[in-house]
C-alpha cells in the first residue's frame, strides 16, 4: 500500500487521508498518521479540523520541527499570531535541516512582519535546495524588504534564468529600484507579456512593464499598459463601487446614531495609528515616527479590523462589510480596545514604549479607535487627489484583498477618494482635533516644520533623527520600500500631470464635487 506521504505529495487527498487512517489504526502511537491527516484537512481548507490533528501528532512527537513549522503556519492562517510566533521561535531554537520546514517558518515570520528574522531560514532553505524557485523567491522578497537590494536582484535573476516567465520575479525586480534608459528590463518584460496566459501572471507582468516604462519616460505606453491590465483584472473580480459605497454608508449611519462614549475605552496611550488612502505617504510617516528613539514600527496590522469583526459576531467572510459596521456598535468599546491590544502585542517591538500601526484602511475604523483607545494618537495622510488616484491606479496591491478592489479603475478610485474625504470630514465633526490631517505636499515643502508638528501631535519630543528617516534600517514590506530609503524629495508631487490627458475624466469628476486638485 502506498504511504500517506506519497499520496499527499501527488495531491491525492482522499488516498492520503485513507492511508493515514490506516496507519493510525495499525500504529496508533505513530505521529505520522495524525500529521498527514492534518495536512489533508489543511489542503482542503479545513483549518479548524487540521489543527487538532496536528496537536495529536505533536503530543506523540513534541520536538518534530516539521510538525511545529506546520503548526505555526496553521496558527497564522487562523490569525492566532501570538501562538504562531511562539511556535516559530521554537523551530528556530531547535534548528532544522529540512528546507521545507525552514521555508515554512520563514513565511510565518514574514506574515508576522518580522522580515529581518525571516532572512536566515530562507537562506538556509535555499542553501539546502537551490533549485527550488519558490524558496528562492521568498528569500528574494525578504532581501528586498530588508534593504538587501543587490542580493534580491541576484535571486530574482537566478529565478528568471531558470523560469523566464516567472511573473512574481519580474514584478519584484521591477519595483526593486528605479530603472533607467541604460539599464531596464522592458524588452524582456514585453516578451513575457506576449507569452503569458495565466490571468494572475498577466496582471503582474503588465504592472511590471508599466512601472519600467514610466521609469524610462515612456508615459503614454505606461498608461496604455496599465489601462489594459486594470480593465482585464476588474472584469475578473467583477468589482462594483456600490460594494464599497455600502460600507461607507453603513459606517456613517452607525456612528451618527451612536451614543458618544469618548472615555469608555482603555487608557493605553502606546498606539499611534497612521491612516489614509494607500500610496499617500503612510510608509514615509511611519519611518519618520519610528526613527524617534521612543517609537518602533509594527507595520500594517490587521488588529483593529479583526477586533471590530470579532465583537460584531457577524459570520460573513469579509472583515468589514455593512452588517459588521452596524453590529459592532453594540459592543463595549473597552472590549474592542482589549482585543486590539492583545493582537497588536505580538507585533510590537520590545525596544520602544510607543509603536506605529500603519494600516491605511484603519481610516474606516477611526470611530472605534477613538472610543476604544481614547489616548491613542491618529494621523491621517492627505495627498493631492489626482496624485492619490494615479498612485493607487499604478500600484499593484494584494490582488486577493477586498481593501483595494477599487484601484483597478480610475473613476472607481476617484469615487473611493471622494468617500474617504467625506468620511474623514465626518470623523472631524464627530471627534474634533483627534485626527491630525497631515499633508504629504506640506511635508515635502518644509520637512522640519511638518515633522515637528507631527511629533507634537503624537506627544513626542523633538529628535533630529526623524529628519534622517532614510537611514532607518527597519524592514519595509510595502511598494514604498525603495522611496523611503532615499532622502525626502518632490518626485511624487504632481506626477499625475505626466498623464494629464488620461486623467482628464478624473479631474472633471473632482471638479463637479468641489474637490480641489490644486
UniProtKB/TrEMBL annotation:
Protein's UniProt name: Sulfotransferase
PROSITE patterns: TPR
Domain of life: Bacteria
Gene3D superfamilies: P-loop containing nucleotide triphosphate hydrolases, Tetratricopeptide repeat domain
Keyword Transferase belongs to the record: yes
Keywords for this protein: TPR repeat, Transferase
InterPro entries reported for this sequence: P-loop_NTPase, TPR-like_helical_dom_sf, TPR_rpt, TPST-like
Pfam families on file: Sulfotransfer_3, TPR_16, TPR_19
TPR repeat placement: 31-64, 99-132
